[in-house]
Design a protein that fits this description.
The protein is an alpha/beta fold. Helices cover 40% and strands 19% of the residues. It has a 5-stranded mixed beta sheet with strand order 4-3-5-12-6, covered by helices on one side. A hairpin with a 2-residue loop joins strand 1 and strand 2. Helix 1 packs across helix 4. The protein is elongated.
């Protein structure tokens, strides 16, 4: 009996992505076509490879074993095919990042990387979901958190400072005391590792009932709201460096309490560090870190960063 090569390739795409829909999008076919190919393969093998889990699918024990056995072969076939077709002159680098960092820090800087590396095709995915490197085709991730992920290469992207900011049309620089801040609408990014109650405690300001506040689930939304004059945001210099450098945001508080944290981390499996495209991207990130530090230090907002 001939091998169902098409069905095997479809199964590999589903197992790698963990989704029939994602596999269908990747393969430019319908979800029903993917389901049919999986059914054909299961009939050929005489065992169940996938089972439903909520809205997605998971591998059965047989599916996991089969995926492990065919993965290397599929990857070698894919690479050989691309080489023959001449596509390997362009290497694809897949980077995953939190949406706010991708929007506010990474994407605005990418032109220099692309100009310096025309043979690398970059794919930037913005999501807060941590990468499962064993199943997802991601080369390197910039992940939000505390930096504790055993078994992976982990390096802090930058030490950030968290400052109260607003539009210059809302208030002038150094025009407020920490106590004055309580009188204004406070903009929250509730996934941030630094929140207003913590800032007030460090500033020595007694807690108060906050009658005016607005909450967002992304830092880039909080930054944009402050630029629009909605109120005072407590944000990271990593997320709002462009707005600070352009003057779209200023710190209205005189001598704010210093809060410095590393919340964004470069993460990947150790074996990915041997990939040339990953080495190139890491070198570029390190250079951009120095540029960013120089830009923030030049503002003189909170001393050296």
């Amino acid at each position: 009996m001939a091998l169902p090569l098409r069905a095997i390739a479809v199964f590999h795409a589903v197992a790698r992505s963990g989704s029939l829909t994602k596999a269908a999008t990747e393969l430019f076919v319908t979800t029903s076509a993917v389901s049919q190919q999986i059914q054909n393969l299961e009939e050929h093998l005489g065992t169940t490879l996938l089972t439903k889990a909520g809205r997605g699918v998971v591998l059965t024990e047989a599916g996991e074993r089969y995926f492990e056995m065919i993965s290397d072969g599929i990857e070698h076939i894919s690479e050989a095919t691309q080489r023959i077709r001449g596509f390997r002159s362009r290497s694809v680098l897949v980077v995953r990042s939190t949406p706010s960092l991708a929007t506010k820090w990474l994407r605005p800087r990418l032109a220099s990387f692309l100009d310096a590396n025309p043979d690398i095709e970059l794919r930037l995915n913005g999501t807060n979901e941590p990468t499962d490197f064993s199943r997802e085709a991601v080369d390197i991730e910039i992940r939000h958190g505390e930096g504790r992920w055993p078994g992976l290469f982990v390096e802090g992207l930058a030490e950030e400072s968290f400052l109260p900011v607003c539009a210059p049309t809302y208030a002038a620089a150094n025009s407020m005391t920490a106590g004055d801040v309580r009188q204004h609408r406070l903009i929250y990014s509730f996934k941030s590792q630094v929140q207003w109650p913590q800032w007030f405690a460090l500033a020595g300001v007694p807690p108060t009932e906050e009658s005016r506040r607005v909450l967002f689930d992304r830092s880039h939304m909080s930054v944009d709201a402050a630029v629009d004059g909605m109120g005072l945001a407590l944000e990271s210099t990593l997320m709002m460096w462009r707005e600070l450098c352009s003057g779209a945001l200023i710190c209205p508080v005189k001598s704010p309490p210093p809060i410095k944290l590393t919340t964004q981390w470069i993460v990947c499996p150790f074996d990915h560090l041997h990939k040339n495209k990953v080495k190139i991207f890491l070198d570029w990130l390190h250079a951009e870190q120095l540029v960013w530090k120089t830009q923030i230090a030049a503002l003189g907002i909170d001393g050296t960063v």
